[in-house]
Write a structure and sequence with these properties.
2% helix; single chain; mainly beta; three-stranded antiparallel beta sheet; 169 residues; globular; 1 helix
Length: 169
């Protein structure tokens, strides 16, 4: 089980978002659960510009195991950031693979599903987060991964919407 822990307040949006991710194990879905470590799961910064400061890591979701080899990644997560050039926060969905040392995650693509901060009126102008993944339900050919996610069209007093992106491989 992956879980969120603690939170950071984003003043430009007046919302709180998770800072850390942890993992826990159990013999049963009903528990009891035991933390796998007292430390949060590390998620590397990846190739984000120096002007992007990671503030927190939201949900981590594993992709269907049968697609890992084709996709080149094992999981996805949303990461909350501060753009120090504009002093605005945002979030993006990144792709991940297990860290080479086995402790946490390395980032494959930090901008797999990015916000569109420069697109006035975009339904995902500020944040993309809270997602789930599915194989393409419309075909027998498993060459797409569908990612359903929430997004916000701005910061404070913004609207939230749900969308889908397709990752083709």
């Amino acid at each position: 089980l992956y879980y969120s822990a603690s939170s950071v307040h984003l003043p430009d949006s007046n919302v709180d978002e998770p800072i850390y991710q942890g993992s826990a194990s159990s013999q049963s879905l009903r528990g009891p659960w035991t933390r796998d470590s007292d430390k949060p799961l590390p998620v590397a910064k990846g190739s984000l510009p120096d002007t992007m400061e990671i503030l927190g890591v939201g949900s981590i979701k594993l992709v269907p195991p049968q697609l890992v080899d084709q996709l080149g990644f094992e999981a996805m997560c949303n990461r909350v950031f501060l753009d120090t050039t504009t002093n605005t926060t945002g979030s993006t969905i990144a792709t991940l693979r297990t860290a080479s040392d086995g402790d946490g995650w390395d980032v494959v693509d930090p901008w797999e599903i990015p916000p569109e901060a420069d697109v006035e009126g975009s339904w995902k102008r500020a944040y993309v987060y809270g997602f789930t993944t599915l194989e393409d339900p419309t075909t027998e050919d498993p060459s797409e991964l569908w990612v359903y996610y929430n997004a916000r069209d701005g910061w404070e007093h913004a609207r939230e919407a749900i969308g889908v992106s397709r990752i083709r491989f």
